[in-house]
C-alpha cells in the first residue's frame, strides 16, 4: 500500500506569516495543492475577509469572536476530501470549516458563485464605531 504525500502546513521559521491575510493565503495554498496533487480541480476561490462569528467559540483553548472567511469550490475524490478535512481540522489557525456537496454533475453547479448576495455591506471588528465596509473593497486572493 502506498501512502500519499505528507503535508507540513507550517512555513519555515524564518518565513512565518505576520498577518492574518498571509495566514489565510497559506491555508488556501496548502489546501489547493492537496486537491491538485490528489487529481482534483479547483473551480474558484473567494475571500470574504473578516466577519464576526455567529457566537463566540473556543478552539485550541483560545476564544474567538471574529474570523476570516473564504470559499474554495473544488471537485475531488472522497479520499482527497478526507485528507483536506483532516489537514484543516489539525491546523491551529482554523476555527471552523465545512465541506459541502453542491451537486452531482458540473451542469448542476456551473452557476454557483462565491459572492455574498445577501449582504452588501458588513461590519468589521471595530463595528462599535459604526464603520461599514463595502464588499467591493475586500481584497481577493489571487
From TrEMBL:
GO terms for molecular function: small ribosomal subunit rRNA binding; structural constituent of ribosome. One of its GO terms (biological process) is translation. Gene3D superfamilies: 3.30.70.60. Keywords: Ribonucleoprotein, Ribosomal protein. Residues 1-20 are annotated as: Disordered. InterPro entries: Ribosomal_bS6, Ribosomal_bS6_sf, Transl_elong_EF1B/ribsomal_bS6. The keyword Cytoplasm does not apply. One of its GO terms (cellular component) is mitochondrial small ribosomal subunit. CDD domains: bS6_mito. PANTHER family: MITOCHONDRIAL 28S RIBOSOMAL PROTEIN S6, SMALL RIBOSOMAL SUBUNIT PROTEIN BS6M. Belongs to the bacterial ribosomal protein bS6 family. This is Ribosomal protein S6. It comes from Paracoccidioides brasiliensis (strain Pb18).
Amino acid at each position: 500500500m502506498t501512502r500519499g504525500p505528507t503535508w507540513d502546513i507550517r512555513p519555515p521559521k524564518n518565513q512565518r506569516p505576520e498577518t492574518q491575510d498571509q495566514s489565510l493565503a497559506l491555508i488556501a495554498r496548502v489546501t489547493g495543492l492537496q486537491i491538485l496533487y490528489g487529481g482534483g480541480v479547483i473551480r474558484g476561490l473567494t475571500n470574504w475577509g473578516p466577519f464576526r462569528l455567529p457566537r463566540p467559540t473556543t478552539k485550541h483553548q483560545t476564544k474567538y469572536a471574529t474570523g476570516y472567511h473564504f470559499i474554495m469550490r473544488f471537485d475531488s475524490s472522497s479520499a482527497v476530501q478526507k485528507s483536506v478535512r483532516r489537514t484543516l481540522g489539525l491546523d491551529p489557525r482554523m476555527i471552523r470549516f465545512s465541506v459541502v456537496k453542491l451537486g452531482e454533475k458540473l451542469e448542476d453547479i456551473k452557476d454557483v458563485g462565491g459572492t455574498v448576495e445577501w449582504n452588501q455591506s458588513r461590519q468589521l471588528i471595530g463595528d462599535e464605531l459604526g464603520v461599514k465596509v463595502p464588499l467591493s473593497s475586500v481584497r481577493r486572493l489571487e
